[in-house]
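Q: What residues go here?
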């Protein structure tokens, strides 16, 4: 029989943030695949876990995943751990999970610490809908594309950032997204944990004076519905009613559907649109 792949969440700071189930699993599996064995050995020593480890990281994730899948097919049970948090969230773990499923290997995830969700709950911002971008791409074109997408996103946005790039990223967010509310969370679950709810401009001003230290999670408001509605309304400014109708008719809508769409755009009733067209001498439009 094939073995089983266990995705084991490990602490993101405080070593007490690990479940009893994860500890038991790490002791019982045949092998632990760790993103950085030198880092993870400290946690295993703390928990008195003697299970053998092997490295599995960004630079060997494809080939090493093949090897680990072969071990799983041979009957070994393997636990995957990342440097901190839940495997597969913005780390090479997703490749191993994909290959395991393709090989018919059973996979299970043992829940626990996750910096993105922890920061979101701590932020004081809306939590019902959110988007997680992890670290923004370093490639300029790709980075710009992602930022343009975030500009339109109405969900709460979660980003990771390193201290030496924090001011640059905040400045880019300010220039493209405007001065939104943001909660800057640093050193989650550690001794110097801090959650600062502020605005992007205030955060930039503060960190230009005081050098950022530690690992950061940025949680910021998405685009407001008021902005979205204002943009929709501004799109039709300057268009006559007939031009507005023609816009939708040219897209294949019949006259009644076009009237309905125009009424929605302008925030008035379909009956009002009809009356205006009649008064303008455009009865043929309806």
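A:
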């Amino acid at each position: 029989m094939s073995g089983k792949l266990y995705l084991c969440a490990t602490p993101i700071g405080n070593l007490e943030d690990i479940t009893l189930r994860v500890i038991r699993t790490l002791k019982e599996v045949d092998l632990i695949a760790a993103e950085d064995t030198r880092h993870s050995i400290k946690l295993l020593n703390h928990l008195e876990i003697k299970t053998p480890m092997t490295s599995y990281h960004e630079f060997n994730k494809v080939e090493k995943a093949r090897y680990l899948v072969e071990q799983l097919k041979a009957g070994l049970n393997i636990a995957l751990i990342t440097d901190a948090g839940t495997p597969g969230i913005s780390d090479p773990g997703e490749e191993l999970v994909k290959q395991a499923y393709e090989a018919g290997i059973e996979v299970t995830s043992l829940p626990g610490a996750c910096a993105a969700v922890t920061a979101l709950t701590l932020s004081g911002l809306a939590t019902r809908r959110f988007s997680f971008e992890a670290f923004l791409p370093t490639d300029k074109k790709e980075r710009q594309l992602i930022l343009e997408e975030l500009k339109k996103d109405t969900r709460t946005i979660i980003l990771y950032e390193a201290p030496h790039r924090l001011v640059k990223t905040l400045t880019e967010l300010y220039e493209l997204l405007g001065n939104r509310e943001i909660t800057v969370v640093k050193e989650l679950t550690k001794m110097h944990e801090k959650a600062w709810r502020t605005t992007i401009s205030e955060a930039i001003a503060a960190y230009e004076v005081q050098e950022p230290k530690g690992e950061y999670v940025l949680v910021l408001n998405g685009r407001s519905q008021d902005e979205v509605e204002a943009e929709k309304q501004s799109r039709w400014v300057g268009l006559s009613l007939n031009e507005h109708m023609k816009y939708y008719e040219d897209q294949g809508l019949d006259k009644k559907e076009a009237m309905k769409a125009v009424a929605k755009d302008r925030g008035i009733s379909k009956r009002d649109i009809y009356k205006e067209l009649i008064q303008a001498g455009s009865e043929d439009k309806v």
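A: Context that may help when evaluating the design: The chain has three domains: 4-113, 116-223, 236-285. Residues 4-113 form a domain with the Cobalt-precorrin-4 Transmethylase; domain 1 fold (CATH 3.40.1010.10).
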